[in-house]
Amino acid sequence: MLSLHTNAATLSAQNSLGRTQASLSTSMTRLSTGFRINSAMDDAAGLQIATRLKAQTSGMAVAMRNTQNSISMLQTAEGALNEVTNILTRMKDLATQAADGSSSATDQGAMQKEFNSLTTELGNIISNTSFGGSKLLNNGTDGKFTAEVNFQIGSESSEQMKFDIKDSLGKMHTAISTAAGDFSGSTLEEGEEFEAGENAGKEISDVPEDDDTAPSAATGATNANGTIANLKAAIEAVSTVRSEMGAAANRLDHVYNNLSNVSTNTKNATGRIMDVDFATESANMTSKQMLMQAGTAMLKQTNSMSSMVMSLLQ
Fold first, then answer.
1. 34-45 pLDDT, tens per residue?
2. What is its main location (predicted)?
């Protein structure tokens, strides 16, 4: 029907051209941003899923850094205990040498000086080894491992790894204190006294040989012989703590590897939802551009239909 008031062909061409223009705009936006979903209108369900996956991936990235920091902390403490083991081994060698009847009093005096110096360094290492400002091996209230430590190893609140060596650490301090009476492995608060036995700090000559609380030392064959067993126990106590730290570090390393695998696959899943396929979208854009050209040409043709009506009146 030819009508001056309503040009149905023009209206149809305008609607088609509007839809094509909207699709072309969407394709250009996707190609310019690289994302298939740029707003919730593009894919509401996909955006919700992708947002959840992104949050999980971000949390896992932080958890991966946490595991690396935790491993570094444990390695710092374990490295310090390795040196403690070396010192205790040397002290045991001194005690073994002093326990021999061939050692003179002068020899034993020299051994005692080295023994005392090593004891002081034991206290220095254990009291002052720190990571990020936190004391690690200290037996005082500020010691990191005097309480349970929770490592955050995942993006969820429940994904934690508990690390508790306070009992083993306490036994280690006790064993070292027994083997080296002058040893102090804690930072003392003002006015606080370190309990290391009533004879701690005394010279061997000041302590009766039958006193069970005699300080460990290399001087004197009788005391030196007893010190050998105490130092052996101390070395074993240190090894126990090192073993627990090593096991925890190994577990954290496996946690890191698993998180890396999960994170990689989660990112891939997010990419499949969010990222645009450039080959497909480029083809869509080309198609929409051709439709725009065709639609514009047809709209021009439909606008000339009114002139056909006027020709009937001539």
1. 999 988 988 999
2. secreted
